[in-house]
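Risk mitigation, structural track. In case the binding assays with iron/sulfur cluster fail to produce interpretable data, a predicted complex structure has been prepared as a fallback.
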Amino acid sequence: MRNIHNWPLWHWHIEISSKCTLECPRCPRSLVPESLVQTELDLNFFKKTFTPELLQQEVMKITFCGDDGDSIYAKDFLNVINYIKHHNKNIQIIIVTNGSYKTSTWWNKLASTLNHNDHVHFSIDGFDQKSNEKYRINSNWKSMMIGLDIMCNNSETFVTWDSIAFKFNENKLNLMKKLAKNIGCDYWQLTLSSQFGSKYSHYNTNGYDEFEPEDKSLIAGNHRFDRQIYNLTNRQYTHNYIQHNKNLYTDIKNKYNEAPHVPLCLIGNKGLYINSKGKFFPCCWVAQRFDHQESYWTSSEFDLRNNTLNEVLNSDKWTELFDSLLTNNSFFECGLKCTSKVVDSNYATSW
Ligand code: SF4
Ligand code: SF4
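Fallback model:
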């Protein structure tokens, strides 16, 4: 594969579907519903974009998680996972899902296709139907627990129960961790979000933010998020790519030594992003459908439905992006997320 900008082709982050049955209030699909297009990528798109050669020679990890949607609702999702594993069973597949409304037959098919290289994250912020649907609106506890049980107990795959700290669960964090252990999860992960009224005033509807924890130590200290990860079993997930990231971070840090940014998109910890319309972006942050990004990302030349991967990745447009990162005159999200003030070795090497 021609790769004149040295994109880290080893990790891809794919929004296979912009569909979801839920309405989480801080999800882009709820925040900017006007421009949401419900669509998905099919098996033919994957066959055309991710050739057997690319899967066997370059790709080490594929993360399925969307800005706007949940992967499990893509019609071809199981076929796509089968296709990837058929060509390279060692590729690490990461799936982030709310886990609602799929049958035990569907989960068993997924369980039999994934292996010990893979990891499924269930996003569960409650401890029963009533508490979970306070934020995960329209979620379905019963079907989530069926999926969680099958993935924990009928597959080699690693499973994490992911919780975000909110006001409604801040006194029940230990209970969720205990439930995760009891059902057989390998990890419980607590995410400290920054998406609260004390950091972004537009979340203060009615003068306050109903979701913001009272315990301020449960809010992220930066503009991204903080994570606490607890191992619940004697199995340890192997992050094959950590050393790879560290080496790339050192190279990129040296190259951008005097610049105000350290572009994570050249390292790969976040993954090169393809959205559900088949458009390529350097990361999921710059793909979000917020007004301040629209003018940069309307170009049709990044559309993988009409251009080859070779054409998109080797476009001259990317030289402009990286030149702009050497000055202060860069995209808003890059200035926030990849400023050298926040990017250190840990930030640049974890997901
Ligand atoms: S489950 Fe994920 S994709 Fe669906 S509404 Fe919630 S955050 Fe958005
Ligand atoms: S925010 Fe900008 S510099 Fe950072 S990973 Fe995304 S595109 Fe690259």
